[in-house]
C-alpha cells in the first residue's frame, strides 16, 4: 500500500553494457558487498511512522530504509554513487562495488581509495561476500576477467536443467532467462523463433517437434558460448550487420592484433510483420541502422577537440560475412541438408502458391495455357537456364527481359513476384474478371496487382474502362473551370429568382447580379405561377423592371401565365439547364447564404436588414450599390454616413473583378478543374438524366452546351450532362427524329 505513494528517485541504474565498457585492460578485480545495504540509509523522523507494522508484541517502525520499498534500489544506487563519485576504476551496481585495475599497483591504489570513502560514510561490508584481488569475478550475472566476459556457469546450468515449458507463463520465463545471454549467442533470434510463435495472439498451444528442436538447440548454443573481449574505446571497432528473411543480426568486433578481430557482443532480433515485407535491400539497411542504434551507447565516437570524419560503410558477400550472417539466419547442421537459401525459397514458394486467390482448377488452366503459349514457354526456359542479352531475345519476350529478376517458376507456374503471369489466350477473360463491379482505373489496377500480371496490363485496363458503356454512363464528369457571370452594367439589370424551403415554409428569393441585393417573400400556401408572378410584380414595383430574369426550369416558370407576365412587363426570361441547375450559380449561392442567416436569427427581417447593410468584398453594401445610399440598421451610425452618395463605379468594378478572379482561382484549384474535351458534330453522347444516347448536332448558343439529336427529340444540353460514348460499342441508331435548321 505504501509503495503507491512513494516518490521515485528516478536515478538511472547503469546497464550491463555500459558498465562492462569500462573494463578495458583490467586484469585485477575486487568485489565489495555492502552489508544489508538498504539498512545503512537512515530514515528521516517524518518517514519513520510510514513504515509502522504490527506484531504480537506491539507496533514497530523502521529507523533505516526497509527492503521492499519501491524506490529503495534507486535511493541506494544514488547514495553509493555520491560516496564513490570521482574515483576511477570503480563500478557500482546497488550494493555491489567492483574495483578493477590494469596493474597490481593501480588496483591496490583504487581499492584503498574506495575503502577510505566507505569508512568515512560509515558503510559496512559483508566479509563473506567480498572477493579481493582476483583475476576474474562474478559481476552482474556474468564472469568478467582479464581474458574477457563469459556467462555465469551456474545460470547456464540452471537453464540446462529446466524442463520444456508447458504453458505461456513458462515460455515467457524461459525466454526471459535465455535473453540474458543473447550477447553470447550468434543466432538467438532465429533459434527462439518456433518458441516465440507460441506467444502470438490467438495461437493455439502446441509444443511440437519444432519447439522441442529449438529448445534443445538453445541449450546446446549456451553450453558453447564464446568468451567476449572487453570493449576498448581506443581500439579499432567495426559493426557487422546482416538481415535474413525474418531476422536481424549484428556483431561488434575489435581488432586485438593486426587483421585479428574478436567479438565484443552479439545482438539479434526477429523482424516485425511489417519489416518482414521489406525488400531485401531495405532489410539490409534496417539491420545496419538497428545495429548502430543498439550499440550506440558503447560505440559512439567522442572527441572534444577534433572533428570526427565520417565512418566508412562497406559490404561483403554472405560467405565472407559469416558472423553477422549467422545471427540473422539458421545455421545448417550438415552440408547434406538443404541450404538456408533453398529452405527459404521453398517456404516462400509454398506460401505464394497457397496465397494465390485462385482455385486449383483455375491454376491448372493457367498452367496449361502457359505451356501452350510460345512466349511463356520461352520465358520459362530462360528462367530455368539463363537469360541471354536483351538483343538476343525475340521482340515478344523483350518486355519480360526487364523484369527477369522478379520472374520465377513455382509448381510449374510462371510468376512475377507473387503474381501469376497470364498468357495471351486468357488475358481478355482476366480483364473482364478484373473489371467485375465496374470499379475505376485505380481500383482495377490495385485488384490486378494482387494476383495477375502481363506486359501492358495497366494500359489495357485503362483502354477497357474507356470503352466500357456502363462506366461511361455513370462516370462522374470532371469539374470544369468556373465561368463567372459577367458583371451587369447597372443595378437591377439582371436578376435571378429561385424557390427554397425553410422550416416547412416555401420562400421566393430574388437576387440582383450587380449589387447582390436580395428580396425574400414567404409563400405559405401555394407556389403556383400566379403567386410567384404576384410576388415579382410587388418587388418590381419597388425596384423597377429588370432587363432579364433568370430562373430554373420549375413548372411555375414554364407556364403560359409567366410567359405572358414577361411579355407584358417587358423583360427577357431565361432558364438554366434542367439537368444542371448549378449553371445558375449566383442564386444557388445566395440561397445557401440566406438560409443560414434566417436559421440563426429569430427575427428574419433583422437578418435581411443585416445582410443588405453589410459591405461586400468591394467595400460597398448591397443597399449602397442598389440605392446609392447606406441604410440605417440597428448599429448606431452618424448622420453624414446616411447622406446619399453614389458608389465609385470604376473602383467598384475593379474590386469586383479581383474578387471574381480570386473566386474562380480558388474554385479551379480546389476542384482541379479542367476544360472538358469539346464534342464534335456527329459524336455519340449519353444524356445522363434522359438515360439515352444521341448524336451531337452542333454547339448551342448557350455556353458549354450542345444541341443533341435523341431518339425522340432534339435537346439543348450542357456538356456536363453529355458524356462521350465509345463509338465502337454503340449500336447504330435508327428512326431518329430529324432536326431542320
Would you kindly provide a written description of the structure presented here, covering whatever features stand out?
- This protein is α+β, with helices and mostly antiparallel strands.
- The chain has five domains: 2-138, Reverse transcriptase/Diguanylate cyclase domain (Alpha-Beta Plaits); 153-298, Ubiquitin-like (UB roll); 359-474, Endonuclease III, domain 1 (Orthogonal Bundle), CATH 1.10.340.70; 494-669, Nucleotidyltransferase, domain 5, CATH 3.30.420; 683-724.
- Helix content is 35%, strand content 18%.
- It has 25 helices and 26 strands.
- The strands form seven sheets. Strands 19-18-17-20-21 form a five-stranded mixed β-sheet, sandwiched between helices. It has a five-stranded antiparallel β-sheet with strand order 25-24-23-22-26, with no helix packed on it. A four-stranded antiparallel β-sheet has the order 4-5-1-6.
- A hairpin with a 4-residue loop joins β24 (705-709) and β25 (714-718).
- α17 runs antiparallel to α18 (457-466) and α22 (585-600) crosses α23.
Q: What structural class is derived from the secondary structure elements?
A: alpha+beta
Question: At CATH's second level, what is the architecture of the largest domain?
Answer: 2-Layer Sandwich
CATH class assignment of the largest domain:
Alpha Beta
How many strands?
26
Task: Calculate the mean pLDDT score and round it.
Answer: 78
**What sort of overall outline do the alpha carbons produce when their principal axes are compared?**
flat
Amino acid at each position: 500500500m505504501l509503495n503507491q505513494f512513494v516518490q521515485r528517485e528516478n536515478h538511472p541504474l547503469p546497464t550491463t553494457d555500459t558498465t562492462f565498457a569500462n573494463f578495458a585492460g583490467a586484469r585485477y578485480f575486487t568485489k565489495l558487498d555492502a552489508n544489508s545495504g538498504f539498512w545503512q540509509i537512515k530514515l528521516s523522523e517524518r518517514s519513520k511512522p510510514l513504515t509502522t507494522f504490527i506484531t504480537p508484541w506491539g507496533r514497530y517502525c523502521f529507523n533505516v530504509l526497509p527492503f521492499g520499498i519501491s524506490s529503495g534500489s534507486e535511493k541506494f544506487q544514488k547514495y553509493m554513487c555520491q560516496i564513490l563519485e570521482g574515483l576511477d576504476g570503480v563500478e557500482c551496481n546497488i550494493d555491489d562495488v567492483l574495483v578493477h585495475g590494469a596493474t597490481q599497483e593501480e588496483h591496490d591504489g583504487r581499492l584503498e581509495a574506495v575503502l577510505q570513502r566507505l569508512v568515512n560514510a560509515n558503510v559496512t561490508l559483508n566479509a563473506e561476500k567480498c572477493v579481493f584481488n582476483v583475476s576474474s569475478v562474478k559481476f552482474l550475472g556474468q564472469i568478467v576477467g582479464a581474458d574477457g566476459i563469459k556467462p555465469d556457469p551456474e545460470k547456464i546450468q540452471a537453464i540446462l536443467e529446466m524442463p520444456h515449458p508447458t504453458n505461456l507463463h513458462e515460455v515467457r520465463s524461459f525466454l526471459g532467462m535465455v535473453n540474458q545471454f543473447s550477447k553470447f549467442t550468434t543466432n538467438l533470434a532465429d533459434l527462439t523463433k518456433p518458441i516465440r510463435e507460441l506467444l502470438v495472439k490467438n495461437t493455439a498451444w502446441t509444443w511440437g517437434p519444432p519447439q522441442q528442436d529449438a529448445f534443445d538447440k538453445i541449450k546446446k548454443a549456451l553450453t558453447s558460448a564464446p568468451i567476449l573481449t572487453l570493449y576498448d574505446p581506443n581500439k579499432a571497432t567495426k559493426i557487422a550487420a546482416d538481415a535474413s528473411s525474418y531476422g536481424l543480426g549484428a556483431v561488434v568486433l575489435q581488432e586485438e592484433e593486426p587483421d585479428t578481430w574478436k567479438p565484443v557482443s552479439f545482438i539479434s532480433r526477429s523482424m516485425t510483420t511489417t519489416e518482414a515485407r521489406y525488400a531485401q535491400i531495405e532489410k539490409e539497411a534496417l539491420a545496419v541502422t538497428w545495429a548502430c542504434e543498439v550499440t550506440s551507447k558503447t560505440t559512439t565516437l567522442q572527441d572534444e577537440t577534433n572533428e570526427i570524419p565520417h565512418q566508412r560503410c562497406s559490404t561483403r558477400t554472405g560467405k565472407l560475412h559469416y558472423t553477422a550472417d549467422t545471427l540473422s539466419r539458421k545455421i545448417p547442421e550438415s552440408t547434406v541438408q538443404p541450404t538456408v537459401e533453398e529452405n527459404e525459397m521453398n517456404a516462400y514458394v509454398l506460401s505464394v502458391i497457397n496465397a494465390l486467390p485462385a482455385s486449383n482448377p483455375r491454376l491448372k488452366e493457367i498452367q496449361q495455357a502457359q505451356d501452350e503459349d510460345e512466349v511463356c514457354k520461352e520465358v520459362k526456359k530462360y528462367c530455368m537456364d539463363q537469360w541471354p542479352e536483351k538483343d538476343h531475345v525475340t521482340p515478344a519476350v523483350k518486355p519480360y527481359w526487364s523484369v527477369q529478376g522478379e520472374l520465377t517458376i513455382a509448381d510449374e507456374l510462371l510468376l512475377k513476384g507473387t503474381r501469376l503471369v497470364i498468357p495471351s489466350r486468357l488475358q481478355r477473360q482476366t480483364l473482364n474478371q478484373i473489371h467485375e463491379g465496374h470499379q475505376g482505373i485505380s481500383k482495377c489496377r490495385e485488384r490486378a496487382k494482387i494476383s495477375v500480371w502481363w506486359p501492358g496490363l495497366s494500359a489495357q485496363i485503362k483502354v477497357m474502362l474507356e470503352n466500357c458503356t456502363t462506366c461511361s454512363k455513370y462516370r462522374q464528369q470532371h469539374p470544369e473551370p468556373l465561368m463567372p457571370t459577367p458583371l451587369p452594367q447597372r443595378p437591377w439589370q439582371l436578376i435571378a429568382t429561385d424557390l427554397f424551403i425553410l422550416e416547412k415554409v416555401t420562400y421566393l428569393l430574388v437576387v440582383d447580379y450587380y449589387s447582390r441585393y436580395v428580396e425574400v417573400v414567404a409563400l405559405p400556401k401555394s407556389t403556383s405561377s400566379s403567386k410567384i408572378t404576384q410576388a415579382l410584380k410587388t418587388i418590381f414595383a419597388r425596384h423597377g423592371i429588370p432587363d432579364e430574369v433568370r430562373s430554373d426550369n420549375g413548372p411555375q416558370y414554364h407556364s403560359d401565365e409567366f410567359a405572358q407576365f414577361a411579355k407584358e412587363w417587358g423583360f427577357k426570361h431565361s432558364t438554366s439547364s434542367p439537368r444542371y441547375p448549378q449553371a445558375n450559380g449566383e442564386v444557388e449561392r445566395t440561397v445557401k447564404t440566406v438560409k443560414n442567416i434566417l436559421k440563426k436569427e429569430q427575427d428574419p427581417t433583422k437578418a435581411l436588414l443585416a445582410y443588405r447593410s453589410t459591405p461586400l468584398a468591394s467595400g460597398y453594401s448591397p443597399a449602397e450599390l442598389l440605392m446609392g445610399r447606406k441604410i440605417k440598421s440597428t448599429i448606431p451610425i452618424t448622420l453624414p454616413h446616411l447622406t446619399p452618395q453614389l458608389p465609385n463605379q470604376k473602383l467598384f468594378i475593379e474590386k469586383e473583378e479581383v474578387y471574381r478572379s480570386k473566386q474562380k482561382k480558388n474554385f479551379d484549384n480546389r476542384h482541379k478543374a479542367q476544360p472538358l474535351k469539346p464534342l464534335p458534330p456527329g459524336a455519340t453522347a449519353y444524356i445522363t438524366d434522359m438515360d439515352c444516347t444521341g448524336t451531337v448536332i452542333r454547339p448551342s448558343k448557350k455556353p458549354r452546351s450542345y444541341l443533341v439529336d435523341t431518339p425522340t427529340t432534339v435537346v439543348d444540353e450542357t456538356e456536363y450532362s453529355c458524356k462521350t460514348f465509345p463509338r465502337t460499342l454503340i449500336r447504330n441508331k435508327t428512326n431518329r427524329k430529324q432536326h431542320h435548321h
